[in-house]
Design a protein that fits this description.
mainly alpha; 78% helix
């Protein structure tokens, strides 16, 4: 059955069938060929139960928040402000790519939205100032992945929903690894540009008065992040309530800078509907597939397979990590999460590992999948914004940052406290 699912998934995706539909088709196939009773009768109940959750309402709110910031021009102002603060380092404007992605990740919750935002505002600068296209675009693709690690993260919300884990605890757990990755991206960029200065373009130093003036565009975003995350951690609001407050805050910020209009709101709402429908179709389809797989005994089959290998808990985790790296080459990241979580997480918990820790480890591996070909979404998003050159330039530029993510995954396995320190300290 495992071979059937893998072959069916890859085959249907190769036909360019939408991921959500693929998951339903695989569920129907499991029902038809591997179940002794008609699981299709549970479809209606699964569709209702998998979507009838107040937790999932946070998703469209966080998507709308990001849409407002992008379409109102707030993101472009943030990039210009960070340019004045970080372009003095080796690598120049490349650091602004990572810094902007980090700051935008703290409000958008989406890696693809983060990468698209930074790429749109940054690429014209790269061409104008003569930066190496590989490193410049690779940094944007990698920085965009922080959107699913630094809270608030849509993927962490989905993980918490599927595993019944505490979303505030997951947000806390993702903070240190997320900021650690951002810092590591900056260090790696600087190191590359020290060795190869011609890749980094011009280092620019701005007058202190300009740097201080730029804070007017940074402080509102920092305050918005503080309000959203602080209200969740203090227990003043659920993630859904905090997301709605964040939307109101984003509207205020956009209005202050003159970016609110009827046309902008129409585009933001339409974009939100499209992204939310895509996410919910995948979540519902995966819930039905997981229901059929569990009923057909895949969990027992997989548990027996891993048990038959005679591996230690650590070796099993390494096998799971390798599995995610390989699957990440071929499967869209959110789909990979929702398909595997109900199967893998119970096994991980049975081995004695913390589900909060494993959620963060999984997110790091999912981040890697976003910038590894052939299905790395952020690679295509950045290439689309470039409008010139070849996709392989973005792929090559992302390689150093893939290695950073791999190092973070190893560090999380060796030192789980990287993820668990804040949840345990503030619980």
């Amino acid at each position: 059955m495992i071979a059937y699912i893998a072959a069916g998934l890859l085959g249907l995706l190769a036909l360019s069938i939408p991921v959500g539909i693929v998951l339903f088709l695989l569920g129907f196939g499991v029902d038809q060929f591997f179940s002794s009773f008609p699981l299709i009768r549970g479809l209606g109940n699964m569709v209702w139960s998998s979507s009838n959750s107040s937790t999932l309402i946070a998703i469209p709110f966080f998507v709308l928040l990001g849409e407002i910031l992008v379409r109102s021009g707030v993101a472009a102002r943030t990039y210009a402000a960070l340019d004045k603060w970080v372009s003095w380092m080796p690598g120049g404007l490349v650091h602004a790519n990572v810094a902007t992605a980090t700051m935008f990740s703290a409000t958008s919750g989406s890696s693809v939205a983060t990468a698209a935002t930074v790429a749109t505002v940054a690429m014209p600068q790269a061409e104008k100032l003569g930066y190496d296209p590989k490193l410049f675009s690779g940094a944007i693709a990698a920085g965009g992945t922080l959107g699913i690690m630094i809270p608030p993260s849509i993927n962490l919300i989905v993980y918490g929903f599927l595993t019944q884990s505490s979303i505030p605890q997951l947000f806390l757990a993702g903070l240190i690894p997320g900021l650690g990755l951002a810092f590591a991206f900056l260090v790696v960029t600087a190191a590359i540009c020290v060795v190869r200065p011609e890749l980094g373009g011009e280092r620019r130093v701005f007058p202190l008065s300009e740097m201080m003036g730029a804070l007017a565009h940074l402080i509102p975003i920092i305050l918005l992040f503080t309000v959203i995350i602080g209200s969740i951690y203090k227990g003043w609001a659920t993630p859904t309530e905090a997301a709605s407050v964040g939307v109101a805050g984003a509207l205020v910020i956009a209005a202050v800078f003159g970016g609110v209009s009827v046309a902008m709101m129409g585009e933001a709402i339409l974009g939100t509907v499209k992204v939310t429908c895509m996410i919910m179709l995948i979540v519902i389809g995966a819930s039905f597939l997981n229901f059929t797989l569990a009923s057909a005994g895949l969990g027992r089959e997989l548990e027996a397979f891993l048990g038959g290998l005679g591996l230690t808990p650590l070796s099993t985790i390494l096998v799971i990590v390798l599995m995610y790296i390989v699957l990440g080459f071929f499967i869209e990241t959110l789909s990979l999460m929702v398909v595997t979580i109900p199967i893998v997480v119970p096994l991980v918990v049975e081995l004695g590992y913390d589900p909060i820790w494993f959620g963060i480890l999984m997110i790091v591996l999912i981040e890697m999948a976003l910038i590894t070909p052939p299905v790395g979404l952020n690679l295509y998003v950045v290439q689309g914004a470039r409008k010139s050159g070849h996709l392989n330039e973005v792929m090559v530029g992302a390689i150093p940052y893939v290695l950073v993510m791999l190092a973070m995954a190893i560090a999380l396995i060796a030192f789980p406290s990287i993820a668990l320190f804040l949840p345990e300290a503030l619980s």
